[in-house]
Design brief:
- The complex is a heterodimer of chains A (311) and B (183).
- Chain A contains eleven helices and nine strands.
- With 311 residues, chain A is of the alpha/beta class.
- Chain A has two domains: 8-133 and 286-300, 3-Layer(aba) Sandwich (Rossmann fold), CATH 3.40.50; 135-280, Rossmann fold.
- The longest helix of chain A has 20 residues, at 281-300.
- Chain A is globular.
- Chain B is built from four helices and eight strands.
- In chain B, the strands form two sheets. Chain B has a five-stranded parallel beta sheet. A three-stranded antiparallel beta sheet of chain B has the order 1-8-7.
- Classes of the chains: A alpha/beta (311), B alpha/beta (183).
Chain lengths: 311, 183
C-alpha cells in the first residue's frame, strides 16, 4: 500500500481485496460490547474539513476512536482558516503538532495532493471538489461484496449527476479495477464527455438499463447546482431519472439499491423505495466505519523501521 | 541454508492433544465451566481438537472460539507493512468461565499478553489458563503455560514450525536451523 489515499489510482486490485478483508475483521469489532481495539494507541488523526460533511467526519472520527487513536476535528468556521490562514500554513501547523494522519475534505480538487507536500504522515482524501472520494467507493465495494460475494461481471448502474460527482468517479474507477460492469445513466448534460475513456458504458435511458442490473446506485441531486440549468426542473428530473415505485418493478427481484447519502426523498429516490429491505443505505453507513478503520490501520500500521526483520 | 529436524510427528501430536485434554479436565474437575479459545492461526485448530477430545472423554461439548490478536500487538507501526489480520469469533459469553487459551508455540510471550488483553475486552473470565503444543523458551514477559505438549530447548535464531492437517495438510512440528545466521 502507498502511504496516502488520494484517489482510487493509489490502490491496486490486490490492495482493494486486502482493505476489504481487513474491514471484515473490523466489522466483527463493531459487534462487540467494547467496540474498541488498541491498534493505533498514541497516534493522532486530524479531521481537516473545509466543507461541511457531518456524516463523513463522524464516520472517520468513530473509526479513529475505535482504533484508540486520538482525534482532532479541525473545521473551518471559527478557526484560523476563517482568519485567512492558507492551506499550507494549516498543514505546517498540523505537522508541527505531530499529526500521524490527516483526513481532508476540501471543495478544491487536488487539495489533498497539495497537502502531501507538507505532511509527513498519511493523507486520506475524504472528498475533494469534483475529483474523488475514494473511501466512499471502497465502502460501497465492501457492501456489494458482502451481499453478492463477487465483483466479476456484477452489473452496476450509477444514476444521476455524474459530472459533478466525486463519488461517481471513484466508484467507477474502483468497480472497473475489480472487474464489474459499470453503466453511467443520466441526462446528457450531466454525463462527463470523457466518460467513455473511463472504461464504462453510458446510457440516457434508465428504463432500458434497470432490467439488466445487479446494483442500482443513485447519486444525490445537488439542488444547489440547479441554477446552472443542467436540467430544467427537479420535478422533471424525478420523472425521468428518479427511482420510483414503478421503476423498481423493472429491476430484477434481487437487485440492490444504494445511495451515498444524504438522500433527497422524492427526487432521485421515492420515499418508500428508500425504505425497501434491499435499499442498503444503513449498511453502507455501518460498513463505512469498518472500511475507514481498515484504511487507517493499513496506512498507519506499517511504515516502520523493521522493514525485513520479521517476514 | 536451512535444515529441518522433525520434533513431533502426527501420532505424537495426537497423544499430546489427548493428554492435555485429560489434564484440563483433571485440573478443572470436569468440563463444566471450561471454554477453549484458540489463537489464530493454528491455535484455533488445536482448540477444536482439544474440544473434540474433551467431548470424547467426558461427553461434554465445551464452547470454542478463535481469537486474532493482531489489533493488540505491541509492534504495530514498527514493521514495514501492517500485520495481516485473521478472523476473530467468540460467540459465547466468557464472563465467569475458565478460558483456556490455546496456541501452537510459546516463545516470547508477547502473543499471549496480547491475547489476554483481547480476551478481557470480551468479558471477565473466572480464570485464564494457557495450553501450548510446544514451549521453546526465551520468554520476554513473565508468562508460563499451564499445559505444555513438549518443552523444547532452542536457540534464539532457530525457528519452531508447527504444521497442522487443517491448515497445512500435515501434522508435524519442525525445528529449522539456519546455517548462515544474519545476526
Amino acid at each position: 500500500m502507498k502511504r496516502h489515499l488520494l484517489s482510487i489510482d493509489d490502490v491496486t486490485g490486490e490492495d482493494i481485496v486486502r482493505i476489504l478483508d481487513t474491514a471484515e475483521s473490523f466489522r466483527e469489532v463493531g459487534t462487540r460490547v467494547i467496540k474498541k481495539v488498541p491498534a493505533l494507541r498514541g497516534r493522532t488523526v486530524v479531521n481537516l474539513f473545509y466543507e461541511n460533511s457531518t456524516r463523513t467526519r463522524i464516520s472517520f472520527e468513530l473509526a479513529a476512536k475505535r482504533l484508540s487513536a486520538d482525534v482532532i476535528n479541525f473545521t473551518t468556521s471559527g478557526t484560523s482558516v476563517a482568519k485567512g490562514e492558507s492551506l499550507k500554513d494549516t498543514a505546517l501547523t498540523l505537522q508541527a503538532m505531530g499529526a500521524d494522519a490527516v483526513v481532508i475534505r476540501h471543495s478544491s480538487s487536488g487539495a489533498p495532493q497539495a497537502l502531501t507536500r507538507w505532511i509527513h504522515g498519511s493523507v486520506l482524501n475524504a472528498g475533494d471538489g469534483t475529483h474523488e472520494h475514494p473511501t466512499q467507493a471502497l465502502l460501497d465495494l465492501y457492501t456489494i461484496r458482502e451481499k453478492l460475494g463477487r465483483f466479476e461481471g456484477v452489473r452496476v448502474a450509477i444514476v444521476g449527476d455524474v459530472l459533478h460527482s466525486r463519488v461517481a468517479r471513484s466508484l467507477s474507477f474502483a468497480l472497473a479495477k475489480v472487474g464489474a460492469e459499470v453503466t453511467l445513466v443520466g441526462p446528457p448534460t450531466l454525463i462527463p464527455p470523457d466518460a467513455p475513456r473511463w472504461g464504462v458504458n453510458v446510457s440516457y435511458d434508465i428504463d432500458a438499463v434497470l432490467p439488466k442490473l445487479d446494483v442500482c446506485y443513485l447519486l444525490r441531486v445537488q439542488r444547489e447546482r440547479q441554477r446552472q440549468q443542467y436540467f430544467p426542473t427537479v420535478r422533471e428530473y424525478a420523472q425521468l431519472f428518479g427511482l420510483t415505485r414503478e421503476r423498481v418493478g423493472l429491476l430484477p427481484d434481487d437487485a440492490l439499491i444504494m445511495h451515498p447519502g444524504p438522500m433527497n426523498r422524492g427526487v432521485e429516490i421515492d420515499s418508500d423505495v428508500a425504505d425497501l429491505p434491499r435499499a442498503l443505505m444503513e449498511e453502507q453507513v455501518t460498513n463505512g466505519i469498518a472500511v475507514r478503520m481498515s484504511l487507517l490501520y493499513l496506512l498507519l500500521g506499517g511504515g516502520g523501521e523493521e522493514a525485513s526483520a520479521d517476514a | 541454508m536451512t535444515t529441518a529436524s522433525r520434533l513431533l510427528d502426527a501420532d505424537e501430536i495426537k497423544r499430546v492433544v489427548t493428554r492435555i485434554a485429560h489434564e484440563i479436565l483433571e485440573r478443572n474437575k470436569g468440563a463444566g465451566n471450561v471454554a477453549l479459545v484458540g489463537i489464530a492461526a493454528r491455535g484455533d485448530d488445536l482448540a477444536r481438537r482439544l474440544a473434540a477430545e474433551i467431548a470424547r472423554i467426558e461427553g461434554v461439548r465445551v464452547p470454542v472460539g478463535v481469537l486474532d490478536i493482531t489489533f493488540y500487538r505491541d509492534d504495530i507501526g514498527l514493521r514495514a507493512e501492517a500485520p495481516e489480520v485473521h478472523e476473530t469469533r467468540v460467540d459465547f459469553d466468557i464472563t465467569g468461565k475458565v478460558v483456556v487459551l490455546v496456541d501452537d508455540v510459546l516463545f516470547s510471550g508477547r502473543t499471549i499478553r496480547a491475547a489476554m488483553d483481547a480476551l478481557m475486552d470480551f468479558g471477565r473470565p473466572a480464570a485464564i489458563r494457557l495450553a501450548v503444543l510446544v514451549d521453546r523458551g526465551h520468554r520476554e514477559l513473565p508468562i508460563r503455560a499451564d499445559f505444555v505438549g513438549k518443552n523444547v530447548p532452542t536457540r534464539q535464531d532457530e525457528d519452531v514450525r508447527v504444521t497442522l492437517l487443517e491448515t497445512d495438510g500435515e501434522d508435524a512440528v519442525f525445528v529449522d536451523e539456519h546455517q548462515e545466521t544474519h545476526r
